[in-house]
Design brief:
Blueprint (H helix, E strand, L loop, with lengths): L2 E5 L4 H12 L3 E6 L12 E4 L5 H10 L2 E4 L6 H6 L1 H18 L3 E7 L5 E6 L10 H13 L4 E5 L1 E3 L13 H11 L2 E5 L4 E6 H11 L6 E5 L2 E4 H11 L4 E5 L8 E4 L2 H7 L7 H13 L13 H5 L3 E5 L5 E5 L5
Parallel strand pairs: 1-2, 1-4, 2-3, 4-5, 5-7, 6-14, 7-11, 8-10, 9-13
Antiparallel strand pairs: 10-12, 15-16
Helix pairs in contact: 1-7, 4-5, 6-8, 6-10, 8-10
Length: about 325
Amino acid sequence: MAKVLIVGGAGYIGGTLTDQLVDAGHDARVFDNLLFEERYLKPVDFVFGDVRDEAALKPHLTWADSVVWLVGLVGDGACSLYPKLTEELNIESVHWLARNFDRRIIFMSTCSVYGAQDGILTEESELNPLSLYARSKVEGEEILGDRAIYFRLGTLFGLGDTYSRIRLDLVLNLLTVKACLYGRMSVYGGDQWRPLLHVRDVAAAVVKNVETDLVGPHNLHTENLTISDLADRIRAYAPDSSIEKTTMKFEDARNYKVSSDKARDAFCFSPSLAPEDGIQEIQELVKQGRIQDASSPRYSNTDFLRPLFVPQEGPLGGEVITPVWQAR
């Protein structure tokens, strides 16, 4: 069994990944700065640290047989808040990893690298990143080259584990909460395609590849759905809810369908959780009163991070945006 270092392992994917690695008999260690969390409660080896603190991170790389690189700002909105920090976390840290670790690397990319394209997209399809987030993932892939396997993840949904926060900046999770909590869903456009993927199926794919020698990009998804079709499926579980559609131009121009045949052929990727499973998971949270306010900043990467960026006067009189947690 492998010694696996999960960098950024206290987040949405990291929570369930840690559980699955331990269940599979691996020795898991989490390195995280708890940006989105106030505490870390899992009974596994945990190291508090910032990935930019190279001296703090390097001994744990020495310990590891495999590294799962989850660190970075995630999502178009979160990355656009502070482009310099996005470059540091999503790009410069990957350069450093490539120079300092010569064993197994598993890197999280995104299907957003495809942007807006017609047809079923494979790993050989043209890349068309439309945001800083997607561009940073394209660059991360290029840095690692054939040194790593990288998963181009579909739009995630569902519950990961007991401890990690639920994300409501993901379309299935958000629409389900709004349908169950408020009785209505707002759909902008609706014809946009998304390749949906349960967060626990991401973790299962990682566990399968901790000790393989597969490299390069692999799409991961469960089912391609339009936003309108997804809303209709949610309404089947919340029949009293309404769907409010608008044709107003929405800032998110992504539109893509993907194939995961490469992953199925390479390592028998077989997602076990359908969109309906995620819908029912989120619905149950609402029924139990565990989610009271879908607009709470805690549930959104962008909204949570926005107040952490504080304008300060720079040394030459210009304004500098500084993340307040750097003082921790």
